Amino acid sequence: MPDPAVAPHQLSRRSLLRNTAALSAGLLGGPAVLSWLAHSAVAAAAKAFVDDYQTNTTANLTADTNAAVRILSGVQRLWQTGPTWDTGVPLAPEVLRANLRYCAAVTAARTEAQAARAFISDRQHQSYAVIAGLGALADVYKAGALAVTSITEAPTGTPATTINDAIPPGAPAGSAIGAGSPTSALGAVVTLVNTVRGPFASSNPSKFAVQYPRPWRMTEESEVIETGEVDDLGYPVYRTDVTVPAQLLRQRSNTPASDGGFPSGHTNALHLAALAFAYAVPERFQELVTCAFDLSDDRIIAGMHSPLDVVGGRVLATALAAATLNDPANAELKAAAREQAAAYLQARTGTTADTLFEYAHSADSTVDPYADRTANERLVTPKLTYVLPREGRDEPLTVPKGAEVLLETRQPYLTAAQRRAVLRTTALPAGYALLDGPEQWGRINLFAAADGYGAFEDDVEVTLDAAGGGFHAADTWRNDIDGPGGLTLRGTGTLGLTGVNRFRGGVRVLGGTLAAGSPRALGVGDVEVRAATLRLAQATVLHGDYRQRGGVLATPARQGAQAALTVAGTAEIGRGSSLELTVEAGSHLVPVLRARRVVSRFDTITVRTPGYRAEPVYTPNAVLVRVRRG
């Protein structure tokens, strides 16, 4: 607590003068470096977060005693905690100034609709709020989990009292706020969400340790200046350009010493709940992640938190969710939650493991606020770093121990090592102070990781099983994949590639179906198909050779278009090879394959479009097909 004998605004001004003088003289460089080195030394000697997360209690407030404080200690490169809540030292004043300016600009431009939404996301239980990320499955889930809320609209002005979420009148018997009732038909899922948000998942220890004030208590210079006045509600007035909506004025804490801004507790809770739901319902993994980013941004719109706070909350939640899901004590629970969610949702929607994903993405934007993947990416990408500057060289991410569990149900066909490779090759670059903290949990980009590898560092072998259903049977990698390695597909399932891919190790389709969804989907190496299917969605270009030894090349055949497959090298068609065509109406001659040299012929050609047949025309460097009715 501040010294009661000294007015807070006097402490702030004295601290400001001392800090400004020190910064001008360059005197803070030494202590700042020493502080950071001390935290680094502690981190180097510490257990991995997933093995130590239960130290995150308010009894432990130092980096050497609390794993959460430790992994967030990258903030110490930006902010040095003072002896009281209002005497901290900006170590990177330009960053913290940008942090406050961002808040001021956002709150100044805030609309009434945004203010109302900010109130709802502030007061509504966070575990309930992220159910919106389930899209077409949201109402089905709420009914099964008996999940309810009393916060559905915002008051027009400042409420007379504080408002908290509660069970609304008329709710079904057994209903509960948050994720729902543990005794409901989806009780295992509810219990998983509650467990991920359990006793060791609080942001409070880190708030108490860092003591970075909320933006509505600070100026651009990151100084805390209390005017000595009180407003109509009896709250102290601070000199700041950050405004809080009228609906939330009474929801503010009046005990600043225990009300730090970093990290954002709401953000931590939103991401924790979203990742728990994403484990149980991976069909909506990417949308749930997007929902958490979206609702967390409301904390800035509300003036309650800064970008730095929100990033810190997301970093903390990523690590805490991984730790809880890794804990052997929760192994049976997480498996039960996934099984229960799949069985219940399929039964209520009339789907199977193979069709639930399609149903989960069947609603338009009037029902599903996260229906547009491209819009989701635009929403998430800038919020990964907000105002944080980047400096220095990039370094590959050493994936934190246990982080791969976050993708366990989303990419069940990959090994743990492969999921770690996905996280590593889709990670944010190094060079962000907060994200580069111990274990670097902040560099994990789960939105991108949901879309598969970002690079093939070595050759990647994947087996998909059509009988396994869901993601065991089919998945699509949408990232632009680079790297020296190649891809081998086995099994009976289907893997789609839709990126502009530049991996150099080639493609071998030895089982199942590889669906190329873009002209550059197959990288820049050779492609081989054996007793499997290569399906092309559009004209595709190969920079190497094409070899088909049995199996199927399935492609559309469009009149006047470029060849369905253009091969820079040799196209070799072996014995037992088939060609499957989907054609447009009318009789015409269409190019199917062009290459520097074409060797041999397809044994069979099948037209999948009813009422048509095909006659092949072979040249030394092309395969064309004359499509006729009959």
Automatic annotation (TrEMBL):
Q: Which InterPro entries did the record assign?
A: PAP2/HPO, PAP2/HPO_sf, TAT_signal
Q: Report the residue ranges that make up the Phosphatidic acid phosphatase type 2/haloperoxidase domain in this protein.
A: 188-325
> Which Pfam families does the record match to this protein?
PAP2
> This protein is called what?
Phosphoesterase
Which species is listed as the source? Micromonospora deserti
